[in-house]
Amino acid sequence: MKITSIFIFSIILFTPFNFAKGQDVKIGDQIWSASNLDVLTFRNGDSIPEAQTSEEWIKAMNNKQPAWCYILNSKNIKTDKILYNFYAVNDSRGIAPKGWRIASNEDWSKLIKKLGGDPKALYYLKMDGNSFKANPRSGHRTIEYDISTSLGGTVDTLNIKAPIFLDTRWWASDKLNNDSAGYIMLPIDDTKEIYFGIGNKGFGCSVRCIKD
């Protein structure tokens, strides 16, 4: 979704939105989790495999198997934040807690519209301390494997030489095809856009849940 205006005003009002305290954020008739998913097991109790090396992450991608990894911060220190590949997100055992589901493209579109459209929504979601806790500076990064050039494997949070990606990406629950799935990207640079993109299912992104 392109943002046509380059002006963002601090006069934006958020009073129509009831931001609940704690783990939920109510925006319009939607109830979102106030932070990204960080479960290590599927809903039935089975463990979600952890990729501890780049090689393990690539293996999960090639085998189309679920995987997750911890995110490193700007000093390459492991945090408690988690990225999942889409095979984990789409696994029949489910990773969303009971009563919740992985947000779809439609859910995200509705959220953006309720926040006033692209300019206002982008401004709000990138604000420090916003109730949705979506600021890209919080350290959410993405794992990508460059299958087009295969230059030395991954560019990811498992590699201490990896760059920090200046965006936050969340998987959407929508199924696309055998190899690709949709994601929502919140940039930190001056592109002035919220993207609805498509990526390899073996990539790693954050996951956000919404109440059923």
What's the total count of β strands? 11
Q: Report the portion of residues in β strands.
A: 25-35%
Rg of Cα set: 17 Å
Order of helices and strands: EEHEEHEHHEEEEEE
Structural class: alpha+beta
The quaternary organization reads as single chain
Count of domain modules: 1
Structure description:
- With 212 residues, the protein is an alpha+beta fold.
- The protein has one domain.
- 15% of the residues lie in helices and 25% in strands.
- The protein has four helices and eleven strands.
- The strands form five sheets. A three-stranded antiparallel β-sheet has the order 8-9-10, with no helix packed on it. A two-stranded antiparallel sheet has the order 1-2.
- A hairpin with a 4-residue loop joins β8 (167-175) and β9.
- α3 (105-114) packs across α4 (118-125).
- The chain is globular, with a radius of gyration of 17 Å.
- Mean pLDDT is 74; it is low at 1-21 and 145-165.
Essential attributes:
single chain; 212 residues; alpha+beta; 3-stranded antiparallel beta sheet; two-stranded antiparallel ribbon; 4 helices; 11 strands; globular; disordered N terminus
Write the layout of secondary structure elements.
Blueprint: E1 24-27, E2 30-33, H1 54-63, E3 68-72, E4 78-84, H2 86-89, E5 100-102, H3 105-114, H4 118-125, E6 144-145, E7 154-155, E8 167-175, E9 180-187, E10 195-200, E11 209-211
Antiparallel strand pairs: 1-2, 3-4, 5-11, 6-7, 8-9, 9-10
Helix pairs in contact: 3-4
In short:
The chain is an alpha+beta fold and about 210 residues long. Helices cover about 15% and strands about 25% of the residues.
